[in-house]
Amino acid sequence: MILDLDKWYNREKRHEQLERHVSETRTATFGFTAYAESDKRHRVNRHFDTIATKYDFMNTLLSGGIHYAWKRRAVETLMIKPQDKILDVCGGTGDIASLSASRTGKKGMSVVYDMNLKMIEQGKQKSIKGVTFVQGDAESISFPDDSFDAVSIGFGIRNVTHLETGFREIFRVLKKGGTMCCLEFSKPDNSVFRFLYDLYSFRIMPLIGGLITGSQEAYTAFPESIRAFPLPEELRLILKDIGFKDIKIRKLTNGIAVIHSARK
User: Fold this and answer.
1) Which residue among 52, 87, 121, 162 is least crowded, i.e. fewest CB within 10 A of its CB?
2) Closest Cα partner for 56 from 102, 118, 140?
């Protein structure tokens, strides 16, 4: 039925996305589908292989371009200074890293870190000035401790099999006193707005995604993964347990997107 749209997970189901449950059950979800713990990384990689060439276009089309404003707000929270070294984990085609590079100047460094080679190739084609692309796993970042003045992750932590491990790696490579921001989708506050958002997410988005990319499945898993993800206050507690300080939550567009900013 067209009105059967309330797919938001309750607290218990959201906690099944966390590392303890994944490790105990040896299962991890991508969207609403459960896979073997060891298989999620492959599923996510295949997902981005499918949509990489249309990724930037689809982001702009499906968000009406507002994702650019969200990313600018996220980068602003990093308080980047000239000559800073910035890492963007799960950085895809480099949108956020490009914004960071414009603030660090020629003496700084802005690095995209992503496991998907096709996404990296798409980013390199954009010839973004001042951005370096590195392929690697967010759960085992290939940089030494205390390497970066700031670290960002935008719309990527949902795809990491062991969420807390991903944040611990971000914490590890961040310098003491350095800043972190996590930009992620979340649950809209207003019930009417949420209904319209759900209608768009589960009736319109997969249809458009299927027509343009040839993968309706990819654009079904995308909104599903948002409904399963921890809510902002739950994510705040995770960041606090890892050791982050001065954690702030900024809701954007009625809570569709949320910025978590923090300091090591």
Assistant:
1) 121
2) 118
Q: What is the mean pLDDT of residues 236-248?
A: 98
Q: For residues 110 and 65, what is the distance between their CA atoms, to the nearest angstrom?
A: 23
Q: From 80, 79, 138, select the one nearest 110 (Cα to Cα).
A: 80
- Whole-model pTM above 0.90? yes
Show the tokens assigned to 124.
């390199």
DSSP 57-79: HHHHHHHTTHHHHHHHHHHHTT-
Please count the other Cβ atoms lying within 10 Å of the Cβ belonging to residue 16: 17
The answer to whether residues 138 and 89 touch, using CB atoms and an 8 Å cutoff, is yes
Rounded distance between C-alpha atoms, residue 116 and residue 25, angstroms: 26
Burial of residue 198 (number of CB atoms within 10 Å: 0-12, 13-18, 19+): buried
How do residues 108-156 score in pLDDT, each as one tens digit?
999 999 999 999 999 999 988 999 999 999 999 999 999 999 999 999 9
What CA–CA distance (Å, rounded) separates 242 from 161? 17
CA angle 106, 112, 114 (to 5 degrees): 170
The CA–CA distances, whole Å, from 261 to 52, 87, 151 equal: 28, 15, 10
Q: Please name the helix (run of DSSP H) or strand (run of DSSP E) that holds residue 169, with its range, or none.
A: helix 163-173
Question: Coil, strand, or helix at residue 14?
Answer: helix
Tokens of 102: 């414009």
